[in-house]
Amino acid sequence: MATPKNIAILGASGYTGAELVRLIATHPMMNIVAMSAERKAGQEMAEVFPHLRHLDLPTLAKIDQIDFSDVDLCFCALPHATSQKVIASLPKALKIVDLSADFRLRDPEEYAKWYGGQHDALECQAEAVYGLTEFYRSQIKAARLVAGTGCNAATGQYALRPLIAAELIDLDDIIIDLKTGVSGAGRALKEPFLHAELSEGAFPYAIGGTHRHLAEFDQEFSAIAGRPVKVQFTPTLLPANRGIIANVYVKGDAEAIFKAFQKAYADEPFIEILPYGQAPSTRHVRGSNYCHIGVTADRLSGRAMIVVALDNLTKGSSGQALQNANLMLGLPEDMGLLSAPVFP
Amino acid sequence: MATPKNIAILGASGYTGAELVRLIATHPMMNIVAMSAERKAGQEMAEVFPHLRHLDLPTLAKIDQIDFSDVDLCFCALPHATSQKVIASLPKALKIVDLSADFRLRDPEEYAKWYGGQHDALECQAEAVYGLTEFYRSQIKAARLVAGTGCNAATGQYALRPLIAAELIDLDDIIIDLKTGVSGAGRALKEPFLHAELSEGAFPYAIGGTHRHLAEFDQEFSAIAGRPVKVQFTPTLLPANRGIIANVYVKGDAEAIFKAFQKAYADEPFIEILPYGQAPSTRHVRGSNYCHIGVTADRLSGRAMIVVALDNLTKGSSGQALQNANLMLGLPEDMGLLSAPVFP
Amino acid sequence: MATPKNIAILGASGYTGAELVRLIATHPMMNIVAMSAERKAGQEMAEVFPHLRHLDLPTLAKIDQIDFSDVDLCFCALPHATSQKVIASLPKALKIVDLSADFRLRDPEEYAKWYGGQHDALECQAEAVYGLTEFYRSQIKAARLVAGTGCNAATGQYALRPLIAAELIDLDDIIIDLKTGVSGAGRALKEPFLHAELSEGAFPYAIGGTHRHLAEFDQEFSAIAGRPVKVQFTPTLLPANRGIIANVYVKGDAEAIFKAFQKAYADEPFIEILPYGQAPSTRHVRGSNYCHIGVTADRLSGRAMIVVALDNLTKGSSGQALQNANLMLGLPEDMGLLSAPVFP
Amino acid sequence: MATPKNIAILGASGYTGAELVRLIATHPMMNIVAMSAERKAGQEMAEVFPHLRHLDLPTLAKIDQIDFSDVDLCFCALPHATSQKVIASLPKALKIVDLSADFRLRDPEEYAKWYGGQHDALECQAEAVYGLTEFYRSQIKAARLVAGTGCNAATGQYALRPLIAAELIDLDDIIIDLKTGVSGAGRALKEPFLHAELSEGAFPYAIGGTHRHLAEFDQEFSAIAGRPVKVQFTPTLLPANRGIIANVYVKGDAEAIFKAFQKAYADEPFIEILPYGQAPSTRHVRGSNYCHIGVTADRLSGRAMIVVALDNLTKGSSGQALQNANLMLGLPEDMGLLSAPVFP
């Protein structure tokens, strides 16, 4: 019987860190041997996340207290900008899945433009593979450093990549109207994320084409099309914790689009194409690594809407990260990721 | 001192009926003298809606038990199709504000197409005035029968009417992506409206251009433009009770749009234009008759997004109805409607 | 026609401050002439609370920038400990309704014990009247300084004061199991109050008899009984914004208790006694100044449960404050407070 | 390698049925070979519960269409009263875990009293074992028919059984104040369970000692004590989908109680005792089979409060059922049940 892999999680006191622990808890081939949380070093995970109290986990440590010599793979769930500094300092042979935005953009100028500063680990950036598993699978298997995608960026790409590749839609008229639960904002203490302010409410943010995940859309869609592609993208904050759902408005033939999805995702373990004319719901993917996609023709000829739903913390972040880690470690891609969504 | 007006409410056991009672409870010039609820006739309102138990209200009756001779104005909060039959049978001089869809469409063929049957009260339809107060004010003042708008239809029109009238946008490329709380569905007992199914969820419905409020958009926008205008419109159900918020995507100059709103709504008591570049939230209009509108330019030149938020039960339905009733009765338009939104 | 009173609100950037503004917005005899918020001085209220943007309000100021010479009454919605310092420095003739805990406890030693420090304004404390309107009405009318009650303290007292006074229950075996929405915690930025942490959750806090509102229970119940009375009291945080509901377990005769309530509250404009054997819901008082009370006998002989529901921000805090202010200013007690609850 | 067991689920279209499917989906030693839903026979599970669409499941059938000859164990998630008729008609050797109330009460008179009718399968009742795993483990291993407990009944028993057994508390003064999410009511279409009616609300129900789970408390506690024990028990409906949390008020020594829990549950895989003086939250057990228990002394000498939290659909129902099925089939008790709670 094979030996489980030793896993470290840096930034374990945030939601994506906790989600990694939740998923790995029942993974048969991974052991968590180290976890960091700079400001909560010395605490037990049960104090920080009481829902994990039944697990036998290492005490939270500072990163520089961790011995990486026996670690097979390290997840970095650190804030942007911090992540690049930390990763640059880790052993050069250590396999890493980064969940931050730091290594998603291949062009340093784009990074500087969207994230407001120079990149401090360009040599790591050079070897980073973009972590959208279904479209970078072979590179991920061979990668040392994988850059997890933005959760919104993943959602939009599942809708659009096969259509751009198959030249099925007008590239100059794409609108992604996306709704997201609040856990995507992390454990940040800000007024709009208080229950008293968000419950029973909904509002768009990062309006006008200012959301940073647009940088990923620009990079990826332009690469597929071989010409610049710029979409409109507006996220709306929902009074919900988990879940992203995007209405993607395109000009193209809905039935051809449907067939393109059936073909593109035929063998994908986590992508479910709904019957033609149906739309998914965030509730039906909650807590799972599954992504549901529906296609509908509009009453207006030549227009179609694609609806994509996934759980931002799982398929949009920590689940994706684990899927990539499985590939990097030579394990079955779906190991530890087959739990069904939690409904109701 | 003037004598208060006598008011009847038909269909008082639904949410819009209850909302009318809530608003009229503190209206200084209206007395509720009769209320109907066919299946709950004989019950007190406190049994049907315990939040109204402190009020001294008439016992619920069947419609044919009500004496309309002293009634100054009657609100009809009945289901579609029922409403037209009832209104056709009411005294011909009775002032009526109808909250159903029955008298919104001027073309009987459009009614038949969208609502699936012949209209049974075409003579009433002929005199009905469309109830979007800000744009039909003078006709409403003189009307006997006012047809309340769809709540989604009102929301979209606040965003688009001034822009179509001022020829500021491309009429062939308009997308209304709207999110709505569940009270718009009424007190219907259906699985998707259960707390256990809706809470923490969100999903689009009536996809593909099939929502009936499109008939109102078609009628109104085409009339303003003097040519057919057909928009794309998709509603998403939110895990929230009250509130509609719509992202309206248009091609046009955002600053010109902003100025058009400032001009069109300068004297409106219930329409608030936010500072340029800001977006509203459903939480900030909840329980009130106020409507908040924001305009933002997109990063893509020549594209703008208008965001409109209102409370579907108040400004989108019962508040609008009361605003119209005030006009029909010669009362100040804002009487009983100035309560501030409830936040948090 | 009488001249409206000039009102100042100190601490307008918190939830109770905003709730005061909301209620006073439609009060026919009050004008808000000054509002303070130390850290947000210079901002408009529309920036701090966008739901109030339609109102014409004074710019937020620092307290020492306010001219109190024309102010008829000042509401203090400041944090505990701060409030006593500020009030001690205000003009000695200014009528004040304080919403903090600072002047609720008549015994300075009790204050020191529960609030962890010496009281800095004992001379103000000496003239303060406890603000539970229904039981201190005549003193409040004559008072210069009224100390608003704790929201939980008000809830429990509505259940128990008439029963202790009428000697209907065992004083040594009283349990108050109370559930509260999160707005009672104010706009504090703490992890348990984040939507992502509270939604779909519920947990007791201040367990073991440590909640500070117990000091009010001890003071008031002992005074009525003429002997020490100490209750058990546990609050549970609900995934809801507004509303308190308490199950109060007593040993006594349920029918006698019901009659005592009917008698005690017969003329009260805001207290509704439900039919015997029914229980209220927070949803049915939401956003209003009404309090609903129900009484039920248990299957175990000699035991009864009283259930009390009110809105913590309205009847439990700002609505109570306004009710008291009306009395202090010689206005009708219910002026501006008759809005019906918002449901759904 | 062992052969997986063949499993049938009767009543698969309700929440407990869906939860069984969710849990068994990743169970390495169970295959679902048949599922029934009388009114939805012929449909695929993906139509009834879209969150399960990724699974390869049998088509829903009527019970009399199912061939039980190869079934190793059958879960019955049918409504009360229906369940006893169906179980009486199933093969006499078939292992059955029943999730209804039909076989929980050993005394047919108690059944008739609480459930309002004669029991139609007394011969099955005679062999039924009460399904509270931790306290009936050896009987469950040997049982053919196990009667799953009420979800509230399980919660209260985890708090009280060890204390009654150890004679640590006053048996005549026990109050269970319990709060529960709405999924415990099943998929029933009733107004109080609509999102619009429940969200932001909370109210007690089955007040006065009328909840049927009291029958289980009476049966079990009296059996342990060897004398009649009758508790007070009031449930409150929470605006949440999953989760039960109970404050259990007892007279006894808190530290002795804490030690009794540590001893009683020392080897239990799913019961977590929190550090002394802490209380659990429903959010920290959500979607899992774990139960969290906390003990606190009150400020009043000799009084203690035990707080118990579990997920009503998992540990309170379907998870418990699977735990028992594992025992009956000779499988590891925790197989398929180790998923961590879903937070946030």
TrEMBL record, chains A, B, C, D:
The keyword Ribosomal protein does not apply. Residues 6-143 form the Semialdehyde dehydrogenase NAD-binding domain. It catalyses: N-acetyl-L-glutamate 5-semialdehyde + phosphate + NADP(+) = N-acetyl-L-glutamyl 5-phosphate + NADPH + H(+). Its EC number is 1.2.1.38. Pfam families: Semialdhyde_dh, Semialdhyde_dhC_1. The keyword Cytoplasm applies. Pathway: Amino-acid biosynthesis; L-arginine biosynthesis; N(2)-acetyl-L-ornithine from L-glutamate: step 3/4. SUPFAM superfamilies: Glyceraldehyde-3-phosphate dehydrogenase-like, C-terminal domain (SSF55347), NAD(P)-binding Rossmann-fold domains (SSF51735). The active site is at C151. Keywords: Amino-acid biosynthesis, Arginine biosynthesis, Cytoplasm, NADP, Oxidoreductase. It is an enzyme of class 1 (oxidoreductase). It is found in: Cytoplasm. InterPro entries: AGPR, AGPR_dimerisation_dom, AGPR_type-1, NAD(P)-bd_dom_sf, Semialdehyde_DH_NAD-bd. It comes from the Bacteria. Belongs to the NAGSA dehydrogenase family. Type 1 subfamily. Catalyzes the NADPH-dependent reduction of N-acetyl-5-glutamyl phosphate to yield N-acetyl-L-glutamate 5-semialdehyde. This is N-acetyl-gamma-glutamyl-phosphate reductase. It comes from Amylibacter marinus.
